[in-house]
Write a structure and sequence with these properties.
- This protein has 344 residues and is of the alpha/beta class.
- The chain folds into two domains: 274 residues, no CATH class; 44 residues.
- Helices cover 44% and strands 15% of the residues.
- InterPro entries: Renin_rcpt.
């Protein structure tokens, strides 16, 4: 009975977590909109890698209700992780062409920091000029700095001051309140980075808000409202900066704290993805993404080779079957006189 109660509680937690997947154009993704299906962070990471046309390890993952288009890829991709929210954010479709909501397997979220690191390595390994901006203690703390760009903090003081003004219920002496304001500040700075990003290269933008449930009950509603508006601002900035943009907003019912060592199979799969990205960075030989141009070039080379082979075969066949006697057409011009009459 006790085990049943524990399992029921875990199931309730999982059911209250979700992920919203958005795309700026309908041709970037395959699948139906609305709310249906389940997702885990490994499948979501693999989905992002496919959308960004990153080199991938061939690993089995749980199928998603959506899939990235094979030929059309995103230039900008964003992740926003909100812990302890208890309710979804970014539910408004806004001007995005596609939106899909799926239940998130919260037991898999402990892999997020590692998988974000894998994504950062893949983006930078594909092109060192690509932009990777990551801010948030819970998700970005383990990402190697050599795979990320420096987050500009020029306006950090003014942004933080405005947030304290917008959240008068929060106290600057409370560690939990300080954490929320600091991570909201980082989220705002990531938004500024998106607005100033170089559109000629790909960009990956990640931000997280740590456990909102750590706030006092009377402060949570105000904080959630500011977080929700900031997430909306994030997605708007991403869409305006990149014509082809993708976004995942992960809303967790609790703080990421589950021991993932117990999930050995999932960890092994995540490691395979990481090794694939590491090999790309080390060798500097990232596999080219499959595009229309690649397929067209392959087809041209293939059929040109086939035609040349057929022509060569026919020419050899004709030569082999040709009559080389003196009365044959081959020698006709040598057997004519000056008056263009053949000799008898």
């Amino acid at each position: 009975m006790k085990a049943f109660v524990i399992l029921s509680a875990i199931a309730a937690l999982v059911a209250s977590s979700d992920v919203v997947v958005k795309y700026s154009a309908p041709n970037l993704v395959k699948g139906a909109e609305g709310r249906s299906g389940k997702a885990d962070v490994l499948s979501l990471t693999r989905h992002a890698m496919e959308s960004l046309a990153l080199p991938e390890a061939v690993v089995p993952v749980e199928p998603l209700a959506v899939s990235a288009d094979l030929f059309k890829h995103t230039a900008g991709y964003g992740f926003v992780v909100v812990e302890g929210a208890g309710e979804g954010f970014a539910s408004e479709k806004a001007d995005y062409a596609f939106q899909k909501t799926m239940d998130l397997q919260e037991a898999s979220t402990g892999q997020l920091p590692h998988l974000v690191s894998v994504l950062a390595q893949g983006v930078k390994g594909k092109n060192a000029k690509n932009v990777v901006v990551c801010a948030g203690d819970s998700v970005c703390g383990s990402v190697d700095k050599k795979f990320t760009d420096v987050l500009s903090t020029t306006n950090a003081a003014s942004v933080e001051a405005s947030l304290w003004s917008a959240l008068p219920a929060l106290q600057s002496t409370s560690p939990a309140d300080q954490l929320v304001v600091r991570e909201l500040t980082n989220l705002k700075l990531v938004i500024d980075s998106i607005k100033k990003a170089d559109k000629s290269v790909q960009g990956l933008y990640v931000a997280s808000i740590s456990d909102l449930s750590g706030l006092a009950a009377e402060k949570q509603d105000a904080a959630k409202a500011v977080v929700a508006s900031s997430v909306q601002e994030f997605q708007t900035a991403l869409k305006e900066r990149y014509t082809n943009a993708g976004l995942q907003v992960l809303t967790l019912s609790q703080k990421m704290k589950i021991d993932m060592v117990e999930l050995s199979a999932s960890v092994a799969l995540a490691r395979q993805l990481s090794l694939s990205a590491n090999a790309t960075v080390a060798n500097k030989t990232a596999a080219a993404p499959l595009t229309i141009e690649n397929i067209a070039e392959y087809q041209i080379i293939l059929w040109t080779a086939v035609i040349l082979a057929v022509v060569t075969f026919l020419a050899i066949s004709v030569l082999c079957g040709m009559d080389a006697n003196r009365d044959s057409l081959l020698y006709a011009k040598f057997l004519t006189d000056a008056s263009n009459r053949k000799n008898d």
